[in-house]
Amino acid sequence: MNMKKIIEVGIQQFKKPKIKQISFVENNKEVNSLLSDIEHKPHAFVLGCLMDRQVKADRAWIIPKIVFDELKTSDINELAEKSLKEYEDIFSKKTLHRFNDDMAKVFYDGVQDIKRKYEGDASKIWRGKPSSALVVYRFLEFRGCGIKIATMAANILAKQFKIEFADYYSIDISPDVHVMRVMERMGCVSKGASREMVIYKARELYPIFPGIIDSSCWEIGRKWCKSENPNCDECSARSECKKNI
Fold first, then answer.
1. Distance of CA 65 to CAs 102, 113, 177, Å?
2. Burial status of residue 29 (CB atoms within 10 A of its CB: 0-12, 13-18, 19 or more)
3. How much is the mean pLDDT over the chain?
């Protein structure tokens, strides 16, 4: 097994300078602008992360923009004054998620936690060069946030937003369907490997920053290594892949 190229791509991505606007949702400048503005509206990014559960990423990331538009405000203090019922009505009316009632509560509680714990400034979650473990832990404190979302959020902060952490040891790979499929087909893990096995394999491959290969594997899975009819000839990892299909 050889993951050298994928690790190199991950390192190159990590070293790239920060871009003005990150592409969370393809061809949606308004949503991308909102989520990328962590200097003025860091809570939008955090709330978007919390929504990314059991729905496609594009659907999850757009939720904060829709909610803000419906409430006619993106100000965290004004958002905190809204009732849970108001959030539930928006989620239900707009069918924002597979689990509208549950995720309305997650969104509402997220707003309240940002207001109460971080004085309305979500950037305090990652400000001051904290350890990666502390950032992951702070995300885990939010209702509905599991380890997959927490490590994904930390990974985006480190690789896309170029937030400096004291270390990157605790930023694991986020084993979604694309990452799991690529790791298995490349021969990194055995067929039918658990998410935990994928996480620990990534830790073995690059211990100082296991999540470094997350975006590389995700991109390969989405572009070429699809569940059906994979395009192996054009895949950037074809020379390293065992093609366990």
1. 19, 19, 26
2. exposed
3. 94
CA dihedral sign of residues 161, 56, 175, 237: negative
What lies within 8 Å, CB to CB, of 187 at 6+ separation is 1, 241, 242, 244
Chain CA centroid to CA 160, Å = 11
Q: What are phi and psi of 36, to 5 degrees?
A: -80, -15
Residue 210: Cβ-neighbour burial (10 angstroms; 0-12, 13-18, 19+):
buried
Residue 41 in tokens: 């509206």
pTM over 0.70: yes
Distance of CA 127 to the CA centre of its chain: 18
Chain-centre distance for alpha carbon 84:
25
Structural domains in the chain plus CATH codes: 4-14+171-234 (1.10.1670.10), 19-125 (no CATH)
| Confidence class for position 5, pLDDT limits 50, 70, 90 | confident
- 138-173, pLDDT tens digit by residue? 999 999 999 989 999 999 999 999 999 999 999 999
Contact status, residue 50 vs residue 142, Cβ threshold 8 Å: yes
Residue 92 to residues 87, 96, 101, 105, 198, Cα–Cα distance (Å): 9, 7, 7, 12, 36
Q: Which residues fall within 8 angstroms of residue 96, CB to CB, at 6 or more apart?
A: 51, 59, 63, 66, 67, 90, 103
